[in-house]
User: Fold this.
Amino acid sequence: MNVRRLIPSTALAGAVALGLVSLSACSGSSGGADKSDGRLDVVASFYPMQFLAEHIGGDHVTVTTLTKPGVEPHDLELKPRQIGELGEADYILYLKGIQPAVDDAIKQAGVANTVDAATLTELEKHGTEVGHDHAGEDHGDEEHEGEAGADPHIWLDPVKYAEVAKGVGASLEKADPDHAADYRKNTDELVKKLGALDTDFERGLKNTTTRTFITTHSAFGYLAERYGLEQEGISGIDPESEPSPARMKELQDIAAKDKVGTVFFETLASDKTAKTLAGDTGLKTDVLDPLEGITDKSKGADYIEVMRSNLAALQKALGAK
Assistant:
């Protein structure tokens, strides 16, 4: 992760201390649906976690997210009030390695029912091969269980996201056993939808003119691996890292060799480098959404709809037959 985007540790420590002062009476929630309305108070770190919590929790949870619509998740700075809310939650769902400031605050909050989605599936390394993205790129805090540089973008693979959904469902059953049957039912329904999405991607991308796509940053490693595609990121895992002139030249060569016709950019990060590359090579531009947040610019109202828009964009760019 680019160090420019991290909150200074002293500032974060002060904010955490401020936020936790008001929580001395509760010292973190012990979990369970103990609020006056009987619902589980769930805090999600950013949209992909919010989506799971809302769909699996259903009527038995109240979900708040630390990352508001339109905010680039990596850039999130927590306010003392938000850190205070963390400590009062019944259940926290986050993804370690995406938001270092959130990772640190959650660790200090000490909530019993805290679930790291990265532990619910297997993380892999993407964007580090020589000639494909940025070898040796420093991903800072993107480390999970000793896996330095592990790619945290697991939600962009419907199969891995379904694995995470199952784990979230099981953890909600444990946190709120009185409603276990409903959590199980909701999980099964969501997993079924994700299975259908996977089938559509597999069929829709089976026969294409090219298997290579160029995107602003390397968020789509799991998706590319799942469906036999080659992702070429202008930046690495970090969407704000600047590509070298040599990398831009390499991408021009790749575009010509692999018959790439489109450069993808995203809604929450700058499209400057994508448009520069497209202009230099005469390529088109389009949106491939990493689904880190839903805004009025998103091509869909939720995860499923935006992923289907991503599929349509890939089919068009890759020349699906």
About this structure: The longest strand covers residues 40-44. The chain has two domains: 3-199, 204-318. Residues 1-34, 128-148 have pLDDT under 50 and may be disordered. The longest helix spans residues 180-204.
